[in-house]
DNA sequence: CTAAATTGCGCAATCC
DNA sequence: GGGATTGCGCAATTTA
């Protein structure tokens, strides 16, 4: 997230092997599904021609048929990775929510600030008007008008 | 995002069948991978007891071993869904970025508003001081002080 | 009911 | 070697 620098060479072209996934898809809470005992053996089925619609063996383009899916260690790695993935995704989601929350907060703050600005502007306006009025009074005093329009000098 | 209402009954317990995925994992650009002709037959391996850790056949809870992976229509549906998924994810990502952008904008706006508030406050302060000063002058005029602190009545 | 959109999850490559 | 990310596909569910 905070580090998207590398060009990130998206592979493209793994190995052409088709794999068998346990894909229990159950496991409501955490993993455990794989612990259900029903570990489907990842054995690669040769894809029997008579069963398939046609096309027996694939292009036979497999360089590395290794990666023993049976390996105990493989399963462990997978499990660990799955965990890491879940964690990472949770974080990501959380961050997104936090960002959204931040937007809301900032919006509120903005409204608050705008209100304050409005208030201050009003105050300023009033004061300025007072000054203007005063200035007029002063002018009236300094230069006594020829007419008696002024009812009476407020003060001064 | 904007609609997380439903209780969302997370399935938990699909069907215990392990499926075979084509999982070509290649296909740099778009789909096409599945069109490589290597259609892995969906045949469910019975999970041979001798091969698995133990536990022969699972609860045998498979109601629908069907879902013919060979089906032409199946592949089409999958492809469409894959496309939809990619689209959805792109949108999601875009939205996240937009939200982040929004945060930045709002932060800038906030700073702008705060600056304005500071300015207005300053102006107000000045005007108020002027008023105070004026009031003092008035007071001085009305009630001449005993001392000669006042340099000279500005006016009035 | 069909089709698109979302969502959770697992795999593998890659990053670090 | 090993956790963290990320692109991708599958399948179930939700929306439209």
Automatic annotation (TrEMBL), chains A, B:
UniProt name for this protein: CCAAT/enhancer-binding protein gamma
Organism: Poecilia mexicana
Keyword annotations of the record: Activator, DNA-binding, Isopeptide bond, Nucleus, Transcription, Transcription regulation, Ubl conjugation
An MF annotation (GO) of this entry: RNA polymerase II cis-regulatory region sequence-specific DNA binding
Superkingdom in the source lineage: Eukaryota
SMART domains named in the record: BRLZ
Family under the similarity heading: Belongs to the bZIP family. C/EBP subfamily.
Domain BZIP as annotated: residue spans: 71-134
Region (Disordered) residue spans: 45-105
